[in-house]
Amino acid sequence: LSQIPNLKILDLAQNNLSGEIPRLIYWNEVLQYLGLRGNNLAGSLSPDMCQLTGLWYFDVRNNSLTGSIPENIGNCTSFQVLDLSYNQLTGDIPFNIGFLQIATLDLSCNMLSGSIPPILGNLTYTEKLYLHGNKLTGSIPPELGNMTKLHYLELNDNLLSGHIPPELGKLTDLFDL
């Protein structure tokens, strides 16, 4: 697929594809849309995913991906939609994910653990943040109140404790909490 010079959209969603995501996909310089949701893809996410400098849509939800979210995820600066939901991803949410300028971030329904990184409050362009259905612990960071464009913030079905930070009151565009 890296040999197709003008391939901008790769949408193979809702099939029965198996195996790992071919690493050569990540070296297509013009790819903008990668839709692989609803397959039987396994293996881990490659750090090479950030080589796709024009990619704005990355959707691998509802597969069987394992391992952790690559530590360099914050370098995927062109992403507008990142959907890793309904997989079997483990580990902490990487700190540098807070460096993205992203509209939708969906990490729901995995096996992510640790606390919610306060740096997620830097995602000031984000409209949808889905973290539900994981094993996240600790308290809700008050910094999430900085995400003033949020419409959807889903934190349910985790192991969170503490109080609801009053800073969430700044989220005046919020529809769903």
Describe this structure in words.
This protein has 177 residues and is mainly beta. Helix content is 0%, strand content 24%. The protein is built from no helices and 14 strands. The chain has strands at 9-11, 18-19, 33-35, 40-41, 57-59, 66-67, 81-83, 88-91, 104-106, 111-115, 128-130, 135-138, 152-154, 159-160. The chain is globular, with a radius of gyration of 16 Å.
How would you briefly describe this protein structure?
This protein has 177 residues and is an all-beta fold. It is built from no helices and 14 strands.
**What is the overall shape?**
globular
How is the CATH topology named?
Leucine-rich repeat, LRR (right-handed beta-alpha superhelix)
Q: What's the SSE pattern?
A: EEEEEEEEEEEEEE
Rg calc: 16 Å
Low-confidence stretches at least 5 residues in length (pLDDT < 50)? none
Helix content: under 10%
**Alpha-beta content class:** mainly beta
Mean pLDDT: 94
**Strand order across the biggest sheet?**
1-3-5-7-9-11-13
Spatial separation of the terminal alpha carbons = 40 Å
Largest sheet: 7 strands, parallel
Percent of residues in β-strands: 15-25%
| Count of separate DSSP helical elements | 0
Characteristics:
177 residues, mainly beta, 24% strand, globular, leucine-rich repeat, Leucine-rich repeat-containing N-terminal plant-type domain-containing protein
